[in-house]
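Hello Y.,

Per our agreement to keep a running log of every chain we model this quarter, I'm adding this entry. I've kept the format consistent with earlier entries: sequence first, then predicted structure.
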Amino acid sequence: MPEGVTTDISVTAPGRLAWIFGSSRSGSTWLLRMLSELERVVPIDDPHIGHHLGVWRPIPLAWATAKDPPKLGTLADFKRKKRDYLFSDRYRDTWMPQLQQLISARFEAQAAQDIAEVGGIDRPVVVVKEPGSHAADTIMDLFPDSSLIFLLRDGRDVVDSWLDAYKDGSWATDEGAYPLDDTGRPALIRWQSSVWLHRTEVVQETYARTDPERRVLIRYEEMRDDPVAALERISSMLRIDASRESLEEIAGTHSFSSVPKAEKGAGREIRRAAPGGWATHMTREEIIQMHGILSEKLDELGYLRPGDIPTKRHAA
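Predicted structure for the entry above:
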């Protein structure tokens, strides 16, 4: 093994761990695949830490049955002040170090195996794509020296993508999704809109308190137009040397156009690259309901445009 190359890694050391946070269906799989091509990067795809730490409350059924639109939160939001709750704030100093040790050991075991398979990596960086980003605040508290990649996408395209995932025979049916009845579409739209909003707000708040040298905000729409620029910004933040030529090659290899037709499109995990499909895939009433939840945040983030929200029809 070359001198200076190691199969050992400590993800708690500064500069050795980075997280991709944001909403699912935002291009995070594409981004991780590109980052995986960089020297020193060891990828971990979907450990779902946030789904274990942040169980949703109320349950999704509430968006179909509640008298008024509920406010989405997590079990921890409601229970953290209670003494008997496992992750009670009262005993935070006890469980936080133990939880960090558990996650660190798990990641280091996987990283060590991957590093050994390639004969060693000098100063490896573990990059984790975490779909449960509604727990980003707790995760960054567990690993205060880690880096944060905030991947942001128009929430309406995220909701549209989830509607496609809940179709008969889609990729997501193997992971717990199911064929959606047309009568259930409004409730799913409201639920997924609330999930996008909650996750976005949590990651925004976490990003704001993270050291600017250890964070980067990448918009999906900008990454789609110029993936090389996005990779350059992330590489710089992670202190990984990569030439523009190598990044161009990586971007080309993983472009949407390079994916075989049989592996992309409706019902596939790699569905579509172009933004704005929500406008043609939802009914007028569905669009109004979605914007009732998302419009304020979309406007804040610069996604809302004049005419996006249909005007309500008035009875004659």
